[in-house]
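Incident review: delayed structure delivery

Summary: a single-chain prediction request sat in the queue longer than the usual turnaround. Root cause was a stuck worker, restarted by the on-call engineer. No data loss occurred. The affected request and its eventual output are reproduced below so the record is complete for anyone auditing the incident later.

Affected input:
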Amino acid sequence: MKRTALITAAAIAIGLTATPAIAQGGNSQFHGMWSCNFSYTELDQYGNRKSGFVRFYQIQVNANNTYQAQGYTPGVYGNEPFQSQGRWQVDAEGFFLARGPEQAQNGFPGLEFIMGAQLQNGELTQRYEMKDPGGTWIMNRSLTQCQRA
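Output delivered after worker restart:
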């Protein structure tokens, strides 16, 4: 399994909280095509970047609570394309969550695709920072930003 896939799942899962889903009827503001960027950065205790990665993708959010996403993760040997189909929901606090299996272009299954964000000023966005176990410095940061395509 690739390190970027493991870090992606861990970073996103850490940033998401489990909250009960609400009915989707009033959530049409999420429907449609979104163009997204995701970045994950690991930092040392001085704030210097140690490692990280980015992902670029488009996600089609459908009225029947399904989605389709496709995009790529730039890598040392070129772009690593992926696709995903699954379901989405919005919790009681307006947090959008899309989840489903991910498939790599090489035919191998990836980890679960997880996208979480809030709708703010017409964009889907989420910023998450995790502090070190002592709580004194930020050891990783993730950012999701999506605009209507």
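Verification: Residues 1-24 have pLDDT under 50 and may be disordered.
Action items: add queue-age alerting; document worker restart procedure.
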